[in-house]
Amino acid sequence: MATTIEHTVQSTLGSSNPEAEPRHHEHQQPPPPVPNTHRRSSFSFSLPTPGLVGSIAEGAHYAGGLQPVHSSQVEHENSEQHVKHRRPEQLGSDDPAVEEVYRSVIEDLQEVYCGRVTLDILRRRFKRDAVFEDPLCVARGWDQYAAQWFALPKVITKSERTSFRIITATVSPNRLIFEQTQVYTFKFIGLTKVIPSVVIVDLDDDFRITRLEDQWYGSPLPKRWGASFLRKLNAKVTPWIFRVPKDNA
């Protein structure tokens, strides 16, 4: 009986269901992918816009590469850079602003070139240390350039401007360049001389002349040693010959 039971147990263990045994030789299938339930971040890199590229070219710095860039912000930054790096404002000869900005300067210069100089004109239009140059003189300071202007009506009977044209005018720095034709009639000999010239005028912030260069026939002023010496000598001698009214200002 015991032998029969033992044999039966062994037979039962030896005849176990093969499907119930673990199959170690087979590969287990990977678990199915888990759906990504995390929400994507809305943070993104912003690319430079054409307007921003333009601002970089003008000297602006792109410091907000990781921040959203709004077109209004780019335009504001561009306008600030334009103000900081603004070039001198250039006015054309036909620009109405020329007449407003330089009208009084042009009128005063016409008076002195036509021999109608006064102390009031020189005081309001020229700085005391201004420089006046033409092919005949290099006058520095009030005593020298005032004598040149007051000497003009002493040696001519008539001076007339027959043509005038503004070449260019700038604001900050203040510079006026024009061309004119002046006709002089000299005393005693009656000689008439027509002189076309290009006049370069530099002015300070109050539009008072700091330097005036009169280039006859549009030619550069003589710089050779002999010519330069004679021009300086003329500026020193003229105040001794032609009296300038006393300036009590």
Automatic annotation (TrEMBL):
Record's InterPro entries? NTF2-like_dom_sf
Compositional bias of kind Polar residues: 1-17
Alphabetized SUPFAM superfamilies for the sequence: NTF2-like (SSF54427)
Q: Where is this region: Disordered?
A: 1-45, 70-95
Residue ranges with Basic and acidic residues bias: 73-82
User: What's the protein called, per UniProt?
Assistant: Uncharacterized protein
UniProt source species: Cerrena zonata
